[in-house]
Amino acid sequence: MADDMTKTSLALAHSQSPIPFTMPVTLPESVAAVHSFLSSNPRAFSGNGVQTKACQAALSSVFGYNNPLLTSSCTSALEMAALALKAHLGDAFDVANPPVVICPSFTFVSTTNSFAKYGFKLRYVDINPDTMNNDESAIEAAVTSEVVAVVVVHYGGVSCDMARVEAFCKLKKLILISDAAQAIGALCHGKPLANYGDMACLSFHDTKNCTAGEGGALLVNNESFLPDAKIAREKGTNREQFLQGQVDKYTWVGLGGHYLMSEINATYLLPQLVGYAALHEHRLALWQRYQDRLKALEARVGSDVFRCPSIPAYNQQNAHLYYVKLSDNTARVALRDYLRTQGIESSFHYTPLHLNPYGVKTGAFAGDDCHTVTEAERLLRLPLYHALQVVDVDRVCAAIEAYY
Fold first, then answer.
1. pTM
2. Closest among 379, 319, 380 to 345, alpha carbons compared
3. What class does CATH assign to 2-19+276-403?
4. Which residues contact 181 (CB under 8 A, 6 or more apart)?
5. Of the candidates 313, 335, 317, which has an alpha carbon nearest to the alpha carbon of residue 379?
6. Could you tell me whether strands 68-71 and 216-220 are parallel, antiparallel, or unpaired per DSSP bridges?
7. 102 and 176 in contact (C-beta within 8 Å)?
8. The domain 28-274: what is its CATH number?
9. Where along the chain do the CATH 3.40.640.10 domains lie?
10. 347 pairs with which residues across the strands?
11. Which of 64, 132, 253, 270 is deepest in the core (most CB within 10 A)?
């Protein structure tokens, strides 16, 4: 009987179109905008032109973000934040005794690479298993005299309690930086999530809610960091001041990189920023469909076996991703492999960075790792992207329900 069921299941899966794990947003408006841009014979494709400025204006007007600087990636934005932080510290930056940045270990390598690259030491803290984000108490317990900044990650467009973290950082005179790569449009206590702290970094990678293929933005909430952020973005020069007529020539005044997004990428991105409300509504409907169906399964089999995500009351999330948690890595691998037989791709996520070779070299875990490793090994992400439809979500859910 089991063999017959397997054969029937495989035959059904092969008769349906595969469901990939992710696909980039391909709005007709974005494609048309690029065609129009190219056919208009623009004088330049390089960055910081009309299309870049239009995207920055949309980030301010549509999302309420402060001082957006469009970049070639979120990694670029994080590097700009690290450079602005280093410039802010000035002579207080002691190479012999590097300043410490607190961050989660459950994150993408760009979060930490950007600070390690410019000489900061990393101090990893545990996560809250309910949100997969920095545990507020762990941040507070990890602060010593060497700590100069806290970097938080908003996993899946959900955050820790940013009002609490921001108040603590102000009390301790620490710089607060958000890796908000996954958090465009998300709110915390009714306030744009990326408006907390001194700086925040967005991503417009293929996998994000709005995409330029590759791209990002640095949002500067504390304007004292803005001059150094602009210098970092202009390869370490004061070219921005030159273009505004503030200096008669521009010179090399600090560290920087080539962090500008091309005008073509910005052209593709702009319609998505302007039309974000419709993108968000569709994505949130898909997320909620998953939650409604799979919560019933969680209640049936128990949350230790199968668990759906939870959203804190203070968050208004952006449905960036949908994940489930299994009992352990063995159960996770088994479900992933089963879904593949049904033509459905799913994916694990980060390997905790403090276990990585370079993570060990550049930092250390503060306190006990109660949740980071165990929760990372339970998590399985399900397909969620703009081209996905409710019928596709129902098919994924039906396959998981049949598995259990």
1. 0.94
2. 380
3. alpha beta
4. 74, 108, 110, 153, 154, 201, 202, 203, 205, 208, 216
5. 335
6. antiparallel
7. no
8. 3.40.640.10
9. 28-274
10. 381
11. 132
Q: Which residue has the tokens 């958090």?
A: 183
- In angstroms, the CA 366 to CA 18 distance is 43
Q: What is the dihedral of CA 263, 268, 269, 275, to 10 degrees?
A: 140
How many residues make up the chain in this entry?
Answer: 404
For residue range 161-217, list pLDDT tens digits in order.
Answer: 999 999 999 999 999 999 999 999 999 999 999 999 999 999 999 999 999 999 999
Domain with CATH 3.90.1150.10 in the chain: 2-19+276-403
Alpha helices in 62-98 (DSSP H): 74-89
Closest CA to 82 of 164, 156, 149: 149
User: Which amino acid, one-letter code, is at 177?
Assistant: I
Q: What's at 113, amino acid-wise?
A: N
Cα-flanking dihedrals φ and ψ of residue 60, to 5°?
A: -80, -45
The number of C-alpha atoms within 13 Å of 397 and in the hemisphere containing its C-beta is 22
Strands 199-203 and 175-179 come out as parallel
Residue appearing with tokens 């990636």: 73
CA dihedral 376, 175, 59, 317 (to 10 degrees): 40
Asked if 219 and 199 count as a contact pair (C-beta separation under 8 A), the reply is: yes
| Distance in angstroms (rounded) separating the CA atoms of residues 233 and 336 | 41
Summarised one tens digit per residue, pLDDT across range 18-35 is: 999 999 999 999 999 999
